[in-house]
Amino acid sequence: MNLVDWFKGMVASRRGEELVDPLIEVQPSPRALKRALLVCLRCIDLDANKRPKMGQIVHMLEADDFPFRSEHRPARERYSVPSSVPTSAKAPHPKKQTEKVDAAKSRRK
User: Fold this and answer.
1) Do 54 and 89 form a contact (C-beta atoms < 8 A)?
2) Cα separation of 41 and 86, whole Å?
3) 58, 60, 85, 92: which is deepest, by most CB within 10 A?
4) pLDDT confidence bin for 1, thresholds 50/70/90
């Protein structure tokens, strides 16, 4: 098993908290951890053309409006990453998110 498959397995089995270094003084909030895990999944997409650029990664990690699925879903589905679904289908494409941000900025001017 390679590192990417191991990581996907940890996320799929809802063991994302175990990926965080226990020696870090301040552990991330569940929301921050979920954001980081989703970004990581995007970065390891099998299709290199679908992987986000570094600027998009920074935006996804810093944005307060990062699109999360409903927090009201059952816990067993919340961190589920089925192996049969391509990584690109699990989170919105960053280009689309960037286009939304650009459109919103244009409307403000």
Assistant:
1) no
2) 10
3) 60
4) confident
Give 31-98 as a 3 state SS string: HHHHHHHHHHHHHCCCCHHHCCCHHHHHHHHHCCCCCCCCCCCCHHHHCCCCCCCCHHHCCCCHHHHH
Phi, psi of 96 (to 5 degrees): -65, -40
Q: Determine phi and psi for 61, rounding to 5 degrees.
A: -75, -30
* Residue 90 burial (CB count, 10 A): 17
19: domain range? Answer: 3-108
Look at the chain and report how many structural domains it folds into.
1
Token pair belonging to 61 = 């990690």
Per-residue pLDDT tens digits for 55-88: 999 999 888 755 554 443 444 444 444 444 444 4
Rounded to an integer, what distance in angstroms lies between the CA atom of residue 97 and that of residue 13?
27
**pTM confidence score:** 0.56
